[in-house]
Design a protein that fits this description.
- This is DUF1905 domain-containing protein.
- It comes from Chitinophaga eiseniae.
- It is a single chain.
- By secondary structure, the protein is mainly β.
- It has a single domain, classed as Beta Barrel (Elongation Factor Tu (Ef-tu), domain 3).
- Helices cover about 15% and strands about 45% of the residues.
- The protein is built from 2 helices and 7 strands, in the order E-E-E-H-E-E-E-H-E.
- Strands 1-7-4-5-6-3-2 form a 7-stranded antiparallel beta sheet.
- The radius of gyration is 13 Å and the shape is globular.
Length: about 90
């Protein structure tokens, strides 16, 4: 049975400034999808690669989701590249 998709997001990987900066995606739909502006731990896929991580709130009302080096290597993408994200469940 196929998993129910809570959200599909098409966005670019972004990177913060400074040494050791995170690579992440930004989504403004967390509050609508999950009914909260707090951190939300989720499972899903980025370009077909499974992940489990938390959307973290930003002061502007959006949320960011870190994309670690292992995932970026698996999908062969870096900051500036576009990715498809599917969110399957809140955990």
């Amino acid at each position: 049975m196929a998993q129910k998709i809570i959200a599909k997001i098409r966005t670019k990987l972004q990177i913060g400034t400074g040494k050791g900066a995170w690579t992440y995606i930004v989504w403004d739909g967390v509050a609508d999808a999950f009914g909260t502006r707090q951190p939300v731990k989720v499972r899903g896929k980025i370009d077909g690669q499974l992940f489990e991580n938390s959307f973290l709130p930003v002061k502007d009302g959006t949320h960011l989701l870190g994309v670690n080096a292992k995932t970026r290597k698996a999908i062969k993408k870096e900051a500036g590249d576009e990715v498809s994200v599917e969110i399957y469940e809140r955990i």
